[in-house]
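Example 803.
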Amino acid sequence: LRDAAAAQPAPTPAQFRQALLRHLQYTVGKSPQKASLFDWRIALSHAVRDHAVDPWFNATRRTWDEDRKRVYYLSMEFLIGRLLEDQAINLGLREVVVQVLGEFGLSFAEVAEGEPDAALGNGGLGRLAACYLESMATMGCPAYGYGLRYEHGLFRQHFENGRQIETPENWLATDNPWDFTRPEVAYPVGFGGALAEHNGAWIWSPGSQVLASAHDTPVVGYGGKWANTLRLWAAMPSADLFDLNRFNAGDFAAASEPEALARSLSRVLYPNDTTDGGKELRLSQEYFLTSASVQDILRRYLAAHQDLLKLPEFVAIQMNDTHPAIAGPELIRLLVDEHGVNFDTAVQTVTGVLGYTNHTLLPEALERWSVGLMRKVLPRHLQIIETLDTQFIQLQGSAPDPVRLVSNDQVSMGDLAFATSHKVNGVSALHTELVSKDLFPVHNELHPGRIVNITNGITPRRWLKLANPSLATLITDTIGAGWETDLERLRELEPYADDPAFRDAFGRSKRQAKEHFTGWLAQEHGIELPADALFDAQVKRLHEYKRQLLNILWTIAHWQRIKRDPQAGWAPRVKIFGGKAAPSYHMAKLIIQLINDVANVVNNDPETSHLLRVAYPPNYGVSMAEKLIPAADLSEQISTAGMEASGTGNMKFALNGALTIGTLDGANVEIREHVGAENFFLFGLTTEQVAERRAQPGHARTALEASQTLRDVLQAIAEGVFSPDDRHRYDGLLDAMWNSDWFLVASDFEDYDRAQSEVADCYGDPDRWQRMAILNVARMGYFSSDRSIREYMSQIWNVESAL
Ligand SMILES: CCc1ccc([C@H](C)CC(=O)N[C@@H]2O[C@H](CO)[C@@H](O)[C@H](O)[C@H]2O)cc1
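Predicted structure in complex with 26W:
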């Protein structure tokens, strides 16, 4: 990173203390004597935020002055988590904050713990967007993130009798110090209405209109040299929609209905992470985000340029999956209808601007909007899509069965996004291969080179420096600082894998992380765990393809084995689960209940509870991940091969010294290549073998008949061992195991069991385990989101760093 814009020097403790007290008194209105932890946090956030403003202004001004190309990352989700400690670290303020708070008898951790997570996302896609924003700022890439300012993020999860219960999340209930309200930045977004032709031009007059109002959050890069903007849109009634007459007539509900409708556009995040519900409000949310963002982008562009055809030289828009894919038709609409650009020229220009990232192959996750709904909500856009469809058919010449953007009365947003983008990327090498071969074979043929791979990454600032301070300090003490922005430097740790002293220090930092996590778990959830056990963790959204079921079935088998032979010298193991299920995903919710039912029996079994525990702390999210991941010894990445596009949790665990047990799926393939096959516990069918096995009728029964161990497990479940009060609770699940098993849990069980016994053997040899863990950390540099962003900048966005 060129050290062009030197960050301002860190304040002295005295200066920072003064700033903190000034905010406590004048921003929060409290004296130190009276201040609560909440007051201190708000005051501290403002004192830290003050240091973000200068690099933010500098970056904005330099981008204007140097007329630099900007990147716009459009995403329906940004799974940010907390910001206080992250911003303090990136601004180089963590040490001075810890010192000054100490002078008031406060710990940074207890003050920071009160901040609500900004949970504006479901899982992988949303968190990736947050890591990428931080990396773009660290890399000095001029960029904006555009998203929705949901009043309610991803629901809060708690368990009642082992069942998931959802309650609304309310992050905005208290003041959000990172939010800069921009009432002057507001755009009307139209919906519905009618079309009329006038002199060969189409005029769209929307039936209703909502105002998109901007809220900005500074995204500071590591080192504080550059800062970008996350602009979140809030829906506001365009005019005073409150119907006073109706109110005076006593019909309050009707009076506020139009207003409520307007606000509903940014009310709540849809909690589905794999099924496209096809709901009108979801499509309206997607268009609301896209239209406001595209209008803001064009306003900024035209403030410095006249020629709209040069847009691709100064603007790169990245669509985070198909959710903002309406951006193509929206930009074409504005260029053609409002700026008089010729249709084909507009299509060419727009294609030069747009990039599309695909994050899943799951058919049910590919968005297909009904033509009827699209015509109702976005009639002009449907027209444009139909024209693009016609052009796309022509492009395929005499192909007997041409691929359509519109077919079976549905608009395929994936095909639309592909057709209107100059680059399309998958998120791991294996996934991109499958995207080319299975998802878009015809497009790929028509546009060779349009598909590129950019393997996901994670920010080492949040996921190592912030989450695992003891390991981060050990690394810096060993190889010096600088790895934070040049993660490949971790390779310098390799020789230390053979250094007993370093292995001990490494072991101690893992132990420290485990005690930090178990302390929090006991205090926050009343779950007691023995820190010297093997911490075996599977934390991610609940989904059948992620195979939490395989994990819990193996756990039952392990429990049964211990009961059969308690003296066999079993290594104490703790099975940690974490993750939410989409509220309408019943099989996923049943698997959650099974995990809790098994935990209930196993944890209360006096014969085994000293050797095996199952913990499932509710409400897994970013902040829990920051505590849990550094404490893990084993990372479960056990999806059915070909179904996990990449995974990013897998990277976070390996970077924090956990060993992976996993299949050849998503980024596991590349992690294993980088850390070495000998430092990875591989099992399971490959993507090709999965396809073959699925083609074999009765493959589930065949696999079950070949595994006494698994049959004993299913027998116990069928007998109600884990649900004595409801013996038939899992009949549906058992039936699916015997008769379909689409996710091949039975077919992979025995090999998984084999890999798990290798884990136990290896864990029994601490030097060997530490050595493998250190080599994992040393060889994870490639998986920094800085590397991913560098590739986006060179292969898709054609943008230079400003630093
Ligand atoms: C329309 C409902 C919906 C919402 C979100 C999604 C996301 C694409 C699901 C998701 O988060 N996918 C995950 O993206 C990660 C980041 O690339 C990958 O690492 C995961 O493998 C992938 O499952 C699909 C469908």
